[in-house]
């Protein structure tokens, strides 16, 4: 009697603890497509038809998008748009999915294989063998040989993303260069947000922070106001002029230590609203991008890729702070600059 059997006989282990015998691999069942070339050709045609259905589905989705444009207040147009786009996209995705599954079940090799584990990195010889296996799998799957499947699959893969491209391309209005310009222009007064009261330079003390909008913004219609504010919001801060590291070319962009920078973070557009007076750092609360206000709002930490744009300012004859011009570079996230 072996040592293991003695343990079981002694009662220290039960039959439930006995190792399960490896059942091995079930006998391979030959498919009809393995022994009948006509059945294989029929399966190939079926797979190709499913891929063609995917192509048709993508076309239907795009057609539905343009044939039934969504109109404000017209629920039937919305229903038709979503119905045809939904049907088309479902056909496009299901056609590829069903086609791939049917291809695998009927035409690709279905032999079960068991392999022993090996060390993580294979030898150069094993890697060379792996390449040979890939080539063998390509031959067995018929991907290279079965041109009809291959071509319809290419077509399905090329067409099914098109509805998504159309949808995403229509998520917002055609903006053109509207993101390149804001309401700021020469002579526009800086006003407090949200009251719209103009700000005099004498009101801005060292260390104080003002959230600023262009004069006239408050009087716009609600939707227009929000869109314009999203681009034109500014943070106004006064520091000791001796602490500013000003570029000689931009020295007249500030006024007696008062500087104005875009409030829209150049990472993803969150409002930069936290100012640390001791370090002159501006912090975006969303992803912790940090900008050095005293040094052209350069990025000193976080994911933002460029400094906050500076608004050139001065004072008018009455002592009110006014803009010298619009921002001279695009505001907001870098991805807004669609020409880059």
Biggest sheet, spatial arrangement of strands = 1-2-3-4
**Strand content of the residues, in percent?**
5-15%
What would the principal axes of the Cα set say about the shape? elongated
What's the pLDDT, averaged over the residues?
Answer: 86
Question: Can you characterise this structure?
Answer:
- This protein has 340 residues and is an alpha+beta fold.
- It has helices spanning 3-9, 32-35, 37-67, 75-106, 124-141, 147-159, 162-169, 222-232, and strands spanning 190-192, 209-214, 234-238, 258-262, 274-276, 281-283, 290-292, 298-301, 313-315, 321-323.
- A 4-stranded antiparallel beta sheet has the order 1-2-3-4. It has a 4-stranded antiparallel beta sheet with strand order 5-6-7-8, with no helix packed on it.
- The radius of gyration is 34 Å and the shape is elongated.
- The termini are far apart.
- The model has no long low-confidence stretch (mean pLDDT 86).
Q: What would a concise description of this structure say?
A:
It is built from eight helices and ten strands. The chain is α+β, with helices and mostly antiparallel strands.
Descriptive key words:
4-stranded antiparallel beta sheet, alpha+beta
List the helices and strands and how they pair.
Layout: H1 3-9, H2 32-35, H3 37-67, H4 75-106, H5 124-141, H6 147-159, H7 162-169, E1 190-192, E2 209-214, H8 222-232, E3 234-238, E4 258-262, E5 274-276, E6 281-283, E7 290-292, E8 298-301, E9 313-315, E10 321-323
Antiparallel strand pairs: 1-2, 2-3, 3-4, 5-6, 6-7, 7-8, 9-10
């Amino acid at each position: 009697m072996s040592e293991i059997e003695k343990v079981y006989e002694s009662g220290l282990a039960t039959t439930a603890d006995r190792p399960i015998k490896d059942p091995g691999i079930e006998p391979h069942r030959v498919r009809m497509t393995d022994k009948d070339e006509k059945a294989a050709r029929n399966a190939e045609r079926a797979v190709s038809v499913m891929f063609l259905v995917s192509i048709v589905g993508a076309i239907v989705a795009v057609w539905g998008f343009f044939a039934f444009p969504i109109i404000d207040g017209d629920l039937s147009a919305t229903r038709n748009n979503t119905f045809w786009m939904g049907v088309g996209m479902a056909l496009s995705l299901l056609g590829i999915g069903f086609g791939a599954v049917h291809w695998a079940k009927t035409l690709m090799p279905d032999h079960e294989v068991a392999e022993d584990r090996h060390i993580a990195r294979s030898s150069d010889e094993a890697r060379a063998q792996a390449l040979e296996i890939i080539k063998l799998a390509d031959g067995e799957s018929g991907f290279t040989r079965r041109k009809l499947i291959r071509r319809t699959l290419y077509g399905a893969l090329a067409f099914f993303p098109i509805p998504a491209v159309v949808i995403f391309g229509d998520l917002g209005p055609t903006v053109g260069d509207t993101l390149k310009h804001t309401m700021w222009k020469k002579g526009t007064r800086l006003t407090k947000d949200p009251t719209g009261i103009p700000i005099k330079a004498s009101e801005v003390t060292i260390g104080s922070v003002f959230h600023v909008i262009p004069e006239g913004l408050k009087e716009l219609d609600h939707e227009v106001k929000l869109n314009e504010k999203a681009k034109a919001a500014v943070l106004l801060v006064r520091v000791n002029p001796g602490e500013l590291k000003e570029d000689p070319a931009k020295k007249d962009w500030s006024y007696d230590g008062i500087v104005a920078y875009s409030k829209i973070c150049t990472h993803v557009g969150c409002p930069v609203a936290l100012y640390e007076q001791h370090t002159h750092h501006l912090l975006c609360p969303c992803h912790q991008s940090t900008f050095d206000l005293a040094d052209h709002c350069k990025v000193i930490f976080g994911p933002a890729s460029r400094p906050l744009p500076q608004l050139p300012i001065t004072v008018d004859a009455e002592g009110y702070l006014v803009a010298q011009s619009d921002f001279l570079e695009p505001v907001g996230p870098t991805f807004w600059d669609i020409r880059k």
